Amino acid sequence: xxxGNSLNEQKILSYMGFASKAKKIVYGKQGLRxxxxxxxxxxxxxxPKDVGSRVKLDVIKHCQVFDVPYIELYCSKSTIAKAxxxxxxxxxxxxxESIIEGILKxxx
Length: 108
Prior knowledge:
Oligomer: single chain
Helix content: 40-55%
Largest sheet: 4 strands, mixed
InterPro entries: Ribosomal_eL30-like_sf, Ribosomal_eL8/eL30/eS12/Gad45
Number of domains: 1
Keywords: Ribonucleoprotein, Ribosomal protein
Number of strands: 4
Number of helices: 5
Structural class: alpha+beta
Order of helices and strands: HEHEHEHEH
CATH architecture: 2-Layer Sandwich
Strand content: 5-15%
Domain Ribosomal protein eL8/eL30/eS12/Gadd45: 11-96
Mean pLDDT: 90
GO cellular component, one term: ribosome
């Protein structure tokens, strides 16, 4: 992981914090499945590096079937949970379109 990646990760964590404060995040198995299948135009799933392999494969499979972009982050579940002010969070979806655009610009 280079400095560019870690700087982008910090920016993404900041965006995630904004989304959490605005109640624009989705988490939990059923919440994420409903979000991925929803008719919302812009969607984005964020997956931490240390999520379980079954969960990761399940989420990625659903993202591919429904053509939803996802980003595999270098940070851990605990780092994401801390940024969101939550506990035991692994995979999250962002529902705010401007935050999604900001995160995707960092990854282009």
